[in-house]
Design a protein that fits this description.
Strand order of the largest sheet: 3-2-1-4-5-6-7
Distance between the termini: 35 Å
CATH superfamily: NAD(P)-binding Rossmann-like Domain
Structural class: alpha/beta
Strand content: 15-25%
CATH architecture: 3-Layer(aba) Sandwich
Low-confidence stretches: none
CATH class: Alpha Beta
Mean pLDDT: 95
Helix content: 40-55%
Number of helices: 9
Shape: globular
Largest sheet: 7 strands, parallel
Radius of gyration: 17 Å
């Protein structure tokens, strides 16, 4: 069987690391793209669960930096069959007080970065007749959230990108799907005020936060060779916090 090569943006974050581990566990050769701010944590990760995973650090919101990182990983890991866009940040504020900088920073990191990485790889996937693209959005991209107009808009935009890629890639064997996590036990949720986190958890029918590995298993399913007839979908992993069809 051909060994698939997977690139994971945001691969050095909490959910990203779990995705890298899940794909490696399925036999993929995995490469992670992380932000330079994660440099201190990367060495420890590669010495443990991240052993064997190639890492490139770059600000993917910068198209020149993204291009250089992709070239670096191509030399070290090869041409990707799978791309998971998991990079993302928050800069929360009530919309009335949100600054243009807060809006632009989130759009650049969450949406522009996905464009900068996906566009150079998409045509090659189509030419080779196989590709799996998974964009990591959010429950708040589906339902909106107080104080997160920038984040919700960027994550909703990711699914718009997903659906367009699905239409363009389907006849060439390239699928594109979205996974929308709810509240997951990561550093991001650990930084929330305890009373706010308790209130949110009380709204989740499952009664708890999700685990990064639960998101990763959903991503791994969509990246599988056997998932070729699933494209343009948004797979929620949110414990029932937001339901739709």
């Amino acid at each position: 069987m051909t060994q698939r090569i997977a690139y994971v943006t945001g691969g050095t974050g909490g959910i990203g690391r779990a995705i890298c581990t899940a794909l490696a566990g399925r036999g993929c050769r995995v490469a992670a793209l992380g932000h330079p701010a994660d440099a201190d944590a990367v060495a420890a990760w590669q010495a443990g669960d991240g052993a064997g995973i190639e890492v490139a650090l770059a600000d993917l919101a910068d198209p020149v930096a993204a291009e250089a990182a992709l070239a670096d990983l191509h030399d070290r890991a090869g041409t990707p069959d799978i791309l998971v866009n998991a990079a993302g940040i928050t800069r929360d504020a009530r919309f009335a007080k949100m600054t243009p900088g807060q809006w632009r920073e989130v759009m650049a990191a969450n949406l522009d970065a996905a464009f900068h990485v996906t566009q150079p790889l998409f045509a090659g996937m189509c030419e080779r007749g196989f590709g799996r693209i998974v964009n990591i959005a959010s429950v708040n991209g589906s339902r909106g959230q107080f104080g997160q107009a920038n984040y919700a808009a960027s994550k909703a935009g990711l699914h718009g990108l997903t659906m367009s890629l699905a239409r363009e890639g389907a006849r060439y064997g390239v699928t594109a799907n979205t996974v929308s996590p709810g509240y997951i036990a990561t550093a991001m949720t650990a930084g929330m005020r305890p009373d706010v986190l308790e209130a949110i958890t009380g709204e989740i029918p499952a009664g708890r936060l999700g685990e990064p590995a639960e998101v990763a298993r959903a991503v791994a399913f969509l990246c599988d060779d056997g998932a070729g007839y699933v494209t343009g979908a948004n797979l929620p992993v949110n414990g029932g916090l937001y339901m739709g069809f």
